[in-house]
Structure to design on (291 residues):
DNA sequence: CACTTGACCTGTCCGC
DNA sequence: TGCGGACAGGTCAAGT
């Protein structure tokens, strides 16, 4: 579920809500979600203070004053939801997806010394948290291999072109989903940016020309920025740190819009399967050229 | 090495 | 209403 804009929205929310809080207790209902030993938890998390919340790709990093960090991947259905006096209860029915916590999806519950709480919910149990020395975070396999951040100023169309060369024979959609090519894109923003650039998701990377890659670069950056502005996409499970939905999905051009008209040409949007994922496109504008 | 597929899980929706 | 199967926003291991 959560792609770069959703994880970034959670990061901003957590920075506002939990930095400076001191951990009192930690409950873990599903050890696979948080496999550190109890003694590590007691030594480096309990009684620690949160100093910062960072993001790299789709991974959140909560830094603690013990020189350890909580590294968190939400995968498909993970949620990090804060509950304190500021927002206790279910929130507004129009923008909240979840009610009282903990609930049956709660895997980890962190209580702070002021009685506020942070819940790690994850229906499908794919997500995880790990307690690691802060200095080791860049050395985990994922961090070593992950590609550039698309919203950093150093990221350019030229860099996108270079990074894509490692997947020359893949479909462009598979390449965009490959986190070693580029960080943070998932199924929603792959479809949205390919529509923006008028590129067929099954087009081979090696057959795309530089103007097409340049257009794709612009669309990736534009779509990600717009989604962050809208608080991300809530397709089913995603909520921010306050348990509230994002609204980007209302602005989506093709994602989850099969059988609806293309916003540019009114052709019916179709849904196909590419790289094992549901894929949405305009069949008139996004075509594979033969030469 | 590049590339694709199946596995990890629970829940929901759709067709019979 | 029940039941089986497909599918859901991500990543990794194992296969070709």
């Amino acid at each position: 579920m959560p792609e770069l804009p959703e994880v970034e929205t959670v990061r901003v929310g957590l920075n506002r809500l939990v930095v400076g809080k001191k951990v009192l207790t930690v409950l873990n209902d599903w050890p696979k979600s948080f496999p550190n030993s109890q003694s590590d938890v007691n030594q480096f998390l309990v009684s620690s203070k949160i100093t910062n919340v960072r993001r790299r790709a789709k991974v959140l990093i909560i830094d603690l004053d013990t020189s350890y960090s909580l590294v968190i991947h939400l995968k498909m259905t993970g949620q990090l939801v804060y509950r304190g006096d500021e927002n206790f209860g279910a929130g507004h029915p129009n923008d909240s997806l979840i009610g009282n916590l903990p609930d049956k999806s709660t895997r980890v519950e962190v209580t702070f010394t002021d009685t506020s709480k942070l819940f790690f919910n994850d229906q499908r149990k794919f997500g995880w948290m790990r307690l690691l020395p802060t200095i080791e975070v860049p050395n985990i396999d994922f961090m070593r291999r992950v590609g550039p951040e698309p919203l950093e100023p150093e990221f350019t169309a030229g860099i996108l072109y270079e990074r894509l060369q490692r997947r020359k024979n893949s479909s462009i959609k598979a390449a965009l989903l490959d986190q070693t090519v580029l960080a943070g894109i998932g199924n929603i923003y792959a479809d949205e940016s390919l529509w923006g650039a008028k590129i067929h998701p099954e087009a081979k990377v090696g057959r795309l020309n530089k103007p097409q890659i340049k257009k794709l670069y612009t669309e990736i950056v534009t779509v990600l920025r717009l989604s962050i502005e809208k608080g991300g996409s809530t397709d089913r499970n995603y909520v921010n740190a306050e348990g509230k939905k994002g609204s980007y999905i209302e602005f989506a051009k093709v994602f989850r819009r099969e059988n609806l008209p293309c916003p540019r040409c009114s052709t019916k949007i179709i849904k196909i399967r590419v790289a094992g994922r549901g894929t949405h496109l305009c069949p008139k504008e996004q075509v594979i050229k033969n030469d």
Q: What stands out?
A: Chain A has two domains: 4-145, 157-281. The beta strands of chain A are 23-28, 50-56, 59-64, 68-73, 78-83, 106-112, 117-122, 128-133, 270-274, 277-281. The two ends of chain A are 37 Å apart (CA to CA). The longest helix of chain A spans residues 210-229.
